[in-house]
Design brief:
Elements: E1 6-12, H1 20-29, E2 36-39, E3 48-51, E4 57-60, E5 72-75, H2 83-94, E6 102-104, H3 113-126, H4 138-144, H5 160-181, H6 192-196, H7 198-214, E7 216-217, H8 220-224, E8 229-232, H9 256-266, E9 270-278, E10 280-284, E11 292-293, E12 315-319, H10 322-333, E13 343-351, E14 361-365, E15 368-372, H11 374-385, E16 388-392
Parallel strand pairs: 1-8, 1-9, 2-5, 2-8, 5-6, 6-7, 9-13, 13-16
Antiparallel strand pairs: 3-4, 10-12, 11-12, 14-15
């Protein structure tokens, strides 16, 4: 348990892609190899970019964004593990000389190839009515795990024979029934060869074994012990399954809810929460985007991580809406009200400020688009959200992340 009973928390305040990775890296750099980054929601659909001062760059998915400075990772029971994609990331980090200690809760749900297939088939079939999924089976994993006959957790990976039987049951019984429930029964037969492939099943069994060998299965207390602790959120508050623009949401609580449960189990007494937002608004995937612009708002905007893909399309842009930002943050903070023994100190981080150029900063507030200086924009964001700005990011690496303007 943390000796100070305090943890840092990084939460995205928009539709994701706010800069959570660089904030987590900043905080992890303060503790280095002694720290541990706990993932408390989401799964392999996360894409948290970190650029180290020496130029190394990695987009973190499973592994916590403190790994480049030596921090360990803990994947909680609220995190969905995907052995196939975990191993790809593990191998990519190994080429940079990074082999972090990764602990995973035995109750963490596990994605199968069949969840990914269902996800991708359904998104293609929806056509213009897509929900904006990444196509990696995150939501489908959680849906399948509601039925104990087909559920899989990390603990279930340890018995290859039983795992093979469960996978066979999923591909033969669950997958066609799930497609039918979603209204796409006609898609079962054209994709039958994929579902029936023994090669895919056997490859997954091998991946499950490699995943277990690369990680340490344990609970939160044993993993975290007395390490400095950083909770790293995934996606953003506007994608929360209970508060986002349904149905274009992630199947996860993206704010404090899961983390508060873990904090109670760990006996934490204080959370230093940083809500992160870009200086403008983005969305990668289908769904509402308030005040959407036809193109990127500033010529200096460059995003090498959120490239166009078959399931989410291209990154979309809007000017930041400070009222929407404040509403999302205050709604999330209200979840902590019931935890009387827990102190929550919240602050704001604004990223991508360098991409605004020398032009006046534009943002929405009330019914107006305002144009002002960078200093006035930062002050307006702090006042509207009722949070103090903690960090301002002027580039992808942590040395471009000074304290607030004075």
């Amino acid at each position: 348990m943390c000796p100070t009973k305090t943890a840092r928390v990084v939460i995205g305040a928009q539709f994701g892609d706010e800069g959570k990775g660089r904030l987590t890296d900043e905080y992890a750099a303060q503790t280095g190899g002694d720290g541990i980054v706990a993932r408390f929601n989401g799964g392999a659909q996360a894409g948290h970019t970190v650029v180290a001062p020496d130029g190394r760059r990695h987009v973190f998915s499973h592994i916590g964004s403190g790994a480049l400075v030596g921090a360990a990772t803990y994947l909680s029971r609220f995190f969905v593990a995907n052995p196939l994609l975990f191993l790809k990331e593990w191998e990519m980090l190994a080429t940079q000389g990074v082999t972090p200690a990764v602990y995973v809760d035995p109750a963490s749900p596990v994605t199968t190839p069949y969840d990914m297939m269902i996800n991708q088939i359904v998104e293609r079939e929806r056509g213009a009515g897509r929900h904006g999924s990444c196509g990696i089976g995150f939501g489908e994993t959680l849906e399948r795990n509601l039925d104990t006959r087909f559920a899989l957790t990390v603990a279930d990976l340890a018995d290859p024979s039983a795992l093979a039987d469960r996978l066979d049951l999923i591909r033969r019984q669950y997958a066609p029934a799930r497609l039918a429930r979603l209204g796409f029964a006609r898609a079962s037969e054209p994709n039958a060869a994929l579902f029936r492939s023994d090669a895919i099943l056997e490859h997954y069994l091998a991946d499950a074994g490699r995943f277990l060998n690369a990680t340490i299965t344990t609970d939160a207390r044993a993993a975290i012990r007395d390490r400095p602790l950083i909770f790293e959120g995934a996606q953003g508050l506007l994608l929360d399954q209970d508060r986002g623009f349904f149905p274009h949401v992630t199947r996860s609580n993206t704010g404090l809810r899961n983390m508060l449960a873990l904090a109670g189990e760990l006996g934490l007494e204080r959370l230093d929460v940083t809500y992160v937002s870009r200086a403008y608004l983005t969305r990668h995937g289908a769904g509402p985007l308030p005040h959407e612009l036809p193109e990127k708002p500033c010529p200096g905007i460059v995003d090498a991580t959120n490239v166009p893909n078959a399931y989410q399309g291209a990154l979309r842009f809007a000017w930041l809406d400070l009222d929407l930002l404040a509403h999302a943050i205050q709604a999330d903070l209200s979840d902590a009200a019931a935890y009387l023994a827990l102190t929550v100190d919240a602050s704001l981080a604004l990223t991508c400020l360098d991409q605004l150029g020398d032009e006046p900063v534009r943002y929405h507030q009330g019914s107006r688009v305002r144009r002002t200086s960078l200093e006035a924009f930062v002050a307006a964001a702090a006042e509207t959200t009722a949070l103090k700005p903690t960090l301002l990011s002027f580039g992808p690496a942590r040395e471009r992340m000074p304290h607030p303007l004075r």
